[in-house]
Design goal:
By secondary structure, the protein is of the alpha/beta class. It has helices at 2-33, 47-51, 54-67, 79-102, 111-141, 156-166, 202-208, 226-233, 275-294, 296-309, 358-366, 373-379, 392-401, 418-421, 430-442, 446-458, and strands at 147-152, 173-180, 189-190, 193-198, 213-216, 239-242, 255-259, 262-266, 315-321, 327-333, 383-385, 414-416.
Length: 467
C-alpha cells in the first residue's frame, strides 16, 4: 500500500517537473532572444533547434534528481532542505548539459540561455515543490492521504516522537497506538493514545489496525529485543523506522549516513564538507579580498599613526587555535607596547590597561586592530564568520572548566561570530560564549553567515567589553 502511494507521488512530481523544465527552457529562450537583456549579435537562432534539446533535458534532470533523492516522499524534511537539494541537483545537471552541448560541433548554443534556464528552473521547480507540499498538507490536515503508525515502546523516546508527530498533522502520520514490553502497561496511555498490546502480538496489531509505519522507539538497554520484534512482524508490508536512543550523545551535527548500504550514525561532525565547504570558502575569498581593497587607505593611515606614536612593528602576530585544534599565527595591528607581557605573562586586556598605546586604545575600541585578520581569511587560516579564536595558553585552562569547550574548534575560527553579535565578547561569560558558538555550528548556513555579517555592521564595531 505504502509503495503504491509512493510510486503515485513520484510519478506525479516527475510529470510536474517535466512540464516545469520544458517551460523554463522555452522561457529562457524567449528572454534571451525575444526580450534581449543583452544584445544579440549573431542573429536569432531557430526555436525548433533549441526546443529539441528538451529531449536531453528531461531524462538528464530525471536521473540527477533521482540521485539527489528528490523523488522520494519527504513528509518529514523541511522546505529549505528540498530547495537546497533542487539547487544542487539543477546546478550539476546544467553543467552536464553544457558539457554535452559543447560536443555538438555543428551548432553553438547560447551560454546566456543556459544561465537564464538555470535560474528560472531553480525558481519554478522550488515553487512547484512548495505548492505540492502545501496541497498535500492541506488534504492531510483534513484526514486524507494519511499513514497510520504504530509506536513500539512506551518510554520517553516513544512519547517524544508521538508528541512531535501530533504537532505536525500536515505530515499525515497518525499514531494508532503503542506496544509495550509487558502486560502491566496495557492500560496506560499518553495524550489520548493507548497501549494496544505487547511486542509479541505486533503482527496482529498491524493487520487489525491497517498499520503502514512501525516506529521502533526503545531505550538503549532494550535494543536486544529488536530481533524478536522483527521476527514477529514477519513479511508484513509496512515501513519500519528505528529511532535510536542516542540523542544524549549527540553533540554537533549528528545524523545518519549510508555507506555501501550500511547505515552509519554520526554523533559529532562538522557542517563544512563538500558543497558547504566550497560555498563558505568562496564567500570568504571574495569578501576578504574586497574588504582588504576598500580598507587599504585606512590600513595605511593606521600604519603611519602606529609608527609615529610608538616604537615597534606595526603588525602583531599571535598564536591562536583554529580548525581541528591546529595552531596558526593571527595577524593584528599592534595595540600594546612592545614586550607588554614580559612581566605579567599571558593575560587578557583590562578596561584601564596601561600596556596599550594611545592609538592602540582607539583601535581596540573600534575593532580596527582586527582588519589584518582578513589576510588570515584569504590565506585560509580563518573565516569571516566563526567562533573567535583563543590563545593555546588560555585554552588549556578553559577546556577542563567549560564543558564542550573544544567542540568550537570543529568550525574554522572567525573574525566575527554569533556570540560576538549577541554581546558575548571580551571579559564575558565563557559558558554563554560556548553556548552561542555551538548553536552557530549546529545551525550553520550561508544565510546565517550573512545575517551575522549584517548584524556586525548594523550594531557597530565598538563594544563596551572591547579593551
Amino acid at each position: 500500500m505504502l509503495k503504491k502511494h509512493s510510486r503515485f507521488f513520484e510519478t506525479l512530481v516527475l510529470l510536474c517537473d517535466w512540464v516545469t523544465l520544458s517551460c523554463s527552457w522555452i522561457l529562457a529562450y524567449y528572454i534571451r532572444f525575444d526580450l534581449p537583456l543583452v544584445p544579440v549579435y549573431k542573429g536569432i537562432p531557430s526555436f525548433y533547434t533549441y526546443f529539441t534539446l528538451i529531449i536531453i533535458i528531461i531524462p538528464l534532470w530525471g536521473i540527477v534528481f533521482k540521485i539527489f533523492g528528490l523523488y522520494r516522499p519527504r513528509r518529514i524534511s523541511s522546505k529549505i532542505a528540498e530547495i537546497v537539494d533542487i539547487s544542487k541537483a539543477t546546478t550539476v545537471a546544467t553543467f552536464i548539459l553544457i558539457a554535452f552541448t559543447f560536443f555538438i560541433r555543428s551548432y553553438e548554443f547560447s551560454r546566456l540561455t543556459f544561465l537564464y534556464f538555470w535560474i528560472i528552473s531553480i525558481v519554478l521547480l522550488s515553487i512547484s515543490r512548495i505548492l505540492f507540499r502545501e496541497f498535500f498538507r492541506y488534504i492531510r490536515k483534513r484526514g486524507y492521504n494519511l499513514r497510520y503508525a504504530l509506536v513500539v515502546g512506551t518510554g520517553s523516546l516513544g512519547q517524544e516522537i508521538t508528541d512531535k508527530l501530533q504537532k505536525h498533522p500536515e505530515l499525515g502520520i497518525k499514531i494508532k497506538g503503542f506496544l509495550c514490553d509487558d502486560t502491566s502497561q496495557l492500560h496506560n496511555s499518553h495524550k489520548g493514545i493507548h497501549v494496544l498490546d505487547t511486542f509479541e502480538n505486533i503482527r496482529k496489531v498491524i493487520i487489525d489496525n491497517k498499520i503502514d509505519i512501525v516506529l521502533i522507539a526503545l531505550p538503549f538497554a532494550a535494543h536486544t529485543k529488536l530481533k524478536s520484534i522483527f521476527n514477529n512482524i514477519g513479511d508484513e508490508m509496512v515501513s519500519i523506522m528505528v529511532i535510536p536512543d542516542l540523542f544524549e550523545f549527540f553533540t554537533l551535527r549528528g545524523g545518519v549516513d549510508e555507506f555501501e548500504g550500511m547505515p552509519i550514525i554520526s554523533l559529532r561532525d562538522t557542517p563544512l564538507y563538500g558543497w558547504n565547504a566550497m560555498v563558505k570558502r568562496s564567500t570568504d575569498i571574495f569578501l576578504s579580498a574586497f574588504i582588504i581593497v576598500i580598507t587599504s587607505p585606512l590600513m595605511l593611515l593606521i600604519t603611519v599613526l602606529t609608527k609615529l606614536t610608538s616604537r615597534g612593528p606595526v603588525l602583531y602576530n599571535q598564536e591562536r587555535m583554529g580548525l581541528d585544534g591546529k595552531i596558526f599565527m593571527m595577524k593584528k595591528f599592534r595595540t600594546m607596547k612592545i614586550q607588554a607581557e614580559d612581566e605579567t605573562g599571558p593575560v587578557w586586556a583590562t578596561k584601564d590597561d596601561d600596556r596599550r598605546t594611545w592609538i592602540g586604545t582607539f583601535l581596540r575600541k573600534c575593532s580596527f586592530d582586527e582588519i589584518p585578520q582578513f589576510f588570515n581569511v584569504l590565506k585560509g587560516d580563518m573565516s569571516i564568520v566563526g567562533p573567535r579564536p583563543e590563545r593555546p595558553y588560555f585554552i588549556r585552562q578553559f577546556r577542563d572548566k567549560v564543558p564542550k569547550y573544544m567542540l568550537r574548534h570543529k568550525m574554522k575560527a572567525g573574525i566575527t561570530g554569533w556570540a560576538q553579535v549577541n554581546g558575548w565578547r571580551g571579559n564575558t561569560s565563557l559558558d554563554k560564549r560556548i553556548e552561542y558558538d555551538l548553536h552557530y555550528i549546529e545551525n550553520w548556513s550561508l544565510v546565517f553567515d550573512l545575517e551575522i555579517m549584517w548584524l556586525t555592521i548594523w550594531r557597530g564595531f565598538t563594544h563596551k567589553n572591547a579593551y
